[in-house]
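Usage

Read records sequentially. Each one opens with the input sequence:
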Amino acid sequence: MEKLYLYQWTWAEVKAYLKKDSVIIVPFGSTEQHGLHLPLGNDALVAIRLAEDAARITKTIVAPPCWYGWSPHHMAYPGTISITPETLISVLYEVLRSLIYHGFQRLIVINGHRTANLPPMQIATTRIRNETGAYVTIADPFYIGDTVSRKIRESPPGGIGHAEELETSHMMHIFPDLVDIKKAVKNLPHKKKFHFADPYMIGDRVFTPSSLESFRDATKPSGVTGDPTLSTEEKGKILHKALVDNLVELIKLARKEKVSLKRITPCF
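and closes with the structure output:
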């Protein structure tokens, strides 16, 4: 059996790994609604698959994935599990601190949950970086895939949001059995002066948090924001390859980073 994950190894095998390498990949995602055509585990599945594919190429160990994220607005639809940002900060901080205590000096966190998870994750990783001296970076597919996404997207302005063309295309490639594209529906937001949802739109922006009610009203009856009807497996294949290539390059760069660890203790 292929052993990519930390939980598959013995402590002695981990000790041996640390004698020759100090990089570990840490996948974080969420469990939340992704419309009528994508699974609740979409974000976690993306982070996991990217971690596994990059790990195989670079011979890197992968930490156990986290399936939960900060998804308050998606509680408008059944099945979503949301933790507070404070909990997410604590979970990521304590996971990273444990790994660093054992000798992992270079940690690559894959965030499959886009902008919602980023603020708490940035707080946790910044704290860890300054307290321990370890090299920690967050790789979000939405951002490390920015260049290729702009090339392959066909959605009109406002068409990239949630469970849309890019997310759906990616899942059609990596987990096709979990996609029911026949149920995909388009839901383009109304034009506004300040638009936030689609990062590929050109214009001035503000951030306005969604309430359960406002999110439900804006996305009913599907839970989608954007246009998944333009999704194809081929776009997903192109996107996935670019993401894995970038992660492989990031891991190689991480191995070259100079690290001076500070004395740390485990979390008690």
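Summary fields computed downstream for this record:
- The chain has nine helices and six strands.
- The first helix runs from residue 11 to 20.
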